[in-house]
Amino acid sequence: MKLHTNYWIKVRLLVVSLAFIVLLTSCEKKYTDLTIQEELISNIQKLNQKVVDFENVAEKSNDEKKIQHAFNQARLEYKKIEWAVEYFAPDPARFINGPALDELEVAENTFFPPNGFQVIEELIYPNCSIENKEELIRKIKILNGNLKQIEQHFSAISISNSHIMDASKMEVNRILALGITGFDSPIAFQSVPEAAVSLTSLKTLISKMSFDNPQSIKCEEEITNLIDNAEKFCLKNTDFKTFDRVYFIKNFLNPISKNLVIFQKINKIEKSNRNSVVNPEATSIFDKKAFNVNAFIPSEEYQFSTEKADLGKQLFYDNSLSNSNTRSCSSCHNPEKAFTDGLKTNQSLSGSLLSRNTPTLTYASLQNAQFWDMRQLDLEKQSLDVIQNKDEMHGSISKAIVVLNTDKKYQQLFKKAFPKSKKIEEWQVQNALASYIRSLNAFDSKFDNFMRGDSNDFTVEEKLGFNLFAGKAKCATCHFIPLFNGTVPPNFQKTEQEVIGTPDDKKRKKISPDLGRYIQYQMPQLKNAFKTPSLRNVAVTAPYMHNGVFTTLEEVVDFYNKGGGVGLSLNVENQTLPSDKLELSPKEMKALAAFMKTLTDREYKLK
């Protein structure tokens, strides 16, 4: 009887032990297997706490190092969720980690003052002043309020595998174009360690999708290894100015991007259409077919086709579009000069000089605004503006159509380009010309071939030049990689203007009198503001700036090295270009110019 009792006691102890183990295991599983959404909400709560801690330090301490450390800890926590904030809440994201510049709503003639990490960074770096304490605490409170709104938003949304893949690829592009370039850490220079944290967050996302097939597991391991090695590289090379961006992009970011696409295909994850600009199948942002020109058209009927481009090419060289029948589009946009004219400013029809330099048409289709003053939003309106301009062509599309209708060759070309149309219409002429311009994006420069791995032909000086461009020289914070214009990655939904204080002439004694975008929208922030142009083919499109004031790349680099107009002691109250000297050595300035020369497409390469 005693033996029997002992037996059941042991059995009960075993059952209790097993139950306890199961309980522990289930608790552990519940903790470690949080869904992506649950972990995202947990991370934003941790971020909120870091911001509260930062606020407490700012209130109680005057120790500059402690305040800066608390700030850095908070922003590193933000980098863990940056992929989601930027993807699911892009508008409020602007006031969490956007640039410290007014957000302009030009159509309403209003603006919103900036808020967020970058604004706070300016208050505490390079030095933290006690006089700024009240404003600092106010900005921290605003940041915390914005983050709480984001938390509520994340609780309500649905997150699919499609969203995760799309957001992950966009985050890699964001790290490349805005992270390691210093765009969102312009004074503290914490971009490199922050990039490591952003990448690590992607590793967690991929692991949580948990596909069991061998191909997927192998690809996940490849992505994990790449991110682990990228993180080690960042933490070993934290200095912003000496960080080797060429090596980092070629050996880590591009392969990660490629493997994300492979992972998506292996697991048959549906493609998201949230970002229409970048081809979801592009293995990297440097792919020849990475960009979709149809993302920049006014509406669906303006879709690009080779037939439209062929028609547009004929119209581009046709003098009948001008009132005098003596000038075509090619009169000012010479294809042998990468569709510029090589002049400081061209002549008007009356023989006087035009006020602005002729910009290249190459890559003009990959931006959200046309002309130096950004007065037109798309290429269709741009062509009409030029044709009707009394100083440029002074023509009429409706009158030109009368001539086109009598030409059998044109009749055939229009029929091929617009098969559903029974007659030639004005919008078709505009669309054809725009389509030809949309065909001028070759992406076959020395730089492109090197970044895609099609060629190893890149000199030590050119590599140094790129690292400077995307680092110490801060060029890439306005001329965004890989388009090298002002169209902001990774969404490419907005094209920016800048106030750099361009001088009136080479004497550099006064600013150019051209008020730029202010002429259309009379907001003080827009005085002397001009669109940030593409630097692609820049070596063959001199002279430079809206007024053609500089004739060589070396002069341009020297201007920026001095700090723009303010650096030249010009009165530019609203300059958006940082006015501090870049302190580039002669060797670095030479390397910077050498790199920019690698952006020349094969067709325009200097003999």
TrEMBL record:
<keyword id="KW-0408">Iron</keyword>
<feature type="coiled-coil region">
    <location>
        <begin position="37"/>
        <end position="64"/>
    </location>
</feature>
<protein>
    <submittedName>
        <fullName>Cytochrome c peroxidase</fullName>
        <ecNumber>1.11.1.5</ecNumber>
    </submittedName>
</protein>
<keyword id="KW-0175">Coiled coil</keyword>
<dbReference type="InterPro" id="IPR004852">
    <property type="entry name" value="Di-haem_cyt_c_peroxidsae"/>
</dbReference>
<dbReference type="GO" id="GO:0004130">
    <property type="term" value="F:cytochrome-c peroxidase activity"/>
</dbReference>
<dbReference type="InterPro" id="IPR038352">
    <property type="entry name" value="Imelysin_sf"/>
</dbReference>
<dbReference type="Pfam" id="PF03150">
    <property type="entry name" value="CCP_MauG"/>
</dbReference>
<dbReference type="InterPro" id="IPR051395">
    <property type="entry name" value="Cytochrome_c_Peroxidase/MauG"/>
</dbReference>
<feature type="domain" description="Cytochrome c">
    <location>
        <begin position="307"/>
        <end position="441"/>
    </location>
</feature>
<keyword id="KW-0575">Peroxidase</keyword>
<keyword id="KW-0560">Oxidoreductase</keyword>
<keyword id="KW-0479">Metal-binding</keyword>
<keyword id="KW-0349">Heme</keyword>
<dbReference type="InterPro" id="IPR009056">
    <property type="entry name" value="Cyt_c-like_dom"/>
</dbReference>
<feature type="domain" description="Cytochrome c">
    <location>
        <begin position="460"/>
        <end position="600"/>
    </location>
</feature>
<keyword id="KW-0732">Signal</keyword>
<dbReference type="InterPro" id="IPR036909">
    <property type="entry name" value="Cyt_c-like_dom_sf"/>
</dbReference>
